[in-house]
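hey so i finally got around to running the thing on that chain from the lab meeting. sorry it took forever, my laptop kept dying and i had to restart like 3 times. anyway pasting the input first so we r on the same page abt which one it is
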Amino acid sequence: MLFHKKGMEILGIVTLVIAEERSVLEAMKQLDATARQILLVAEDNKLKAIITDGDIRRHLLRGGKLEDKVKDIANYNPRFIYEKDKDNSREIMRKWSILSLPVVNEKLEIQSVVFVHDYEIGRNHSVSAPVVIMAGGLGTRLHPYTKILPKPLIPIGEIPITEHIINRFMEYECNEFHLIVNHKKNMIKAYFSEVEKDYKIEFHDEDIPLGTGGGLRLLKGKVETTFFLTNCDVLIRANYKEIYDFHKQNRNMITIVAAYKHLTIPYGIINMDSNGEIATMVEKPEYSFLTNTGFYVVEPEVVDRLEDDKAVGFPDIIEKQKSLGEKIGVFPVSEKCWLDMGQLEELEGMRKELEV
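ok and heres what got predicted. didnt touch it at all, straight out
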């Protein structure tokens, strides 16, 4: 059961408890299922440790495996508060710059978990970086919608997907937006000319299709600092400040935000040997892999190195930068953090996730 109190949430703890012998993959799935960023490691309901999405991300970036145990990466010196201090939880979270706190009794038995949204406790989440939105595609996978509307204007609730993307960036004080447009571009421009807005938006016309990356060449001289780049059909529910800081701290030329996908094959898989006999048979195997979300942090040098009027995909741009010896980083997020409307089924899924 979920309770609300002055912007904070106290959540029943059952869904947040995980055994320390469980795998990192199971922890990721549980974090996705609960839509929270914390799990509690407990024994006989006594708090032993916590594990967060950040712990998992750092583990994977160090080369850790999904098969490793929760106990290998959990924090066994967690922050917590006693029941008697719960009324001061907001101030305590502000002091420690954290978003959640387990509440325990004198025996360290877990009573609840208190949450507060980071922007409500005054954490500095300002990024103020320019944002480039690739909005020129035909959107053929979204027919018949895109027979009438360009993909950037497909509505998710009462506003189009592009406005959802812009609003998310505005939470991090990003207020400079560049839209690379082509297909039905006048409709896109007309829509945003009528929208009441407190941000700057500039359109860059692709006279000919330049692929998923070539249109960036239109930004030469327009974007000269580190910028976010996103497709117009994805929404990433992660901390953009953490993504940006990760990019800068690692001195990457490009950082790819990648989501872990978990796929279960609903069949028994047979592997054969050279004699045509069964070598192995695995019932309903499960695979985990990182997939590109279409969301990046990019240095302006990438724009400067692009050739004029040459169509190129952004994956090819990444390969080119690698060949030049530049660092390409990966910032992993959980599957639930990635909302994609590239196909009709995914479009409906995004609408449900955003509850519109």
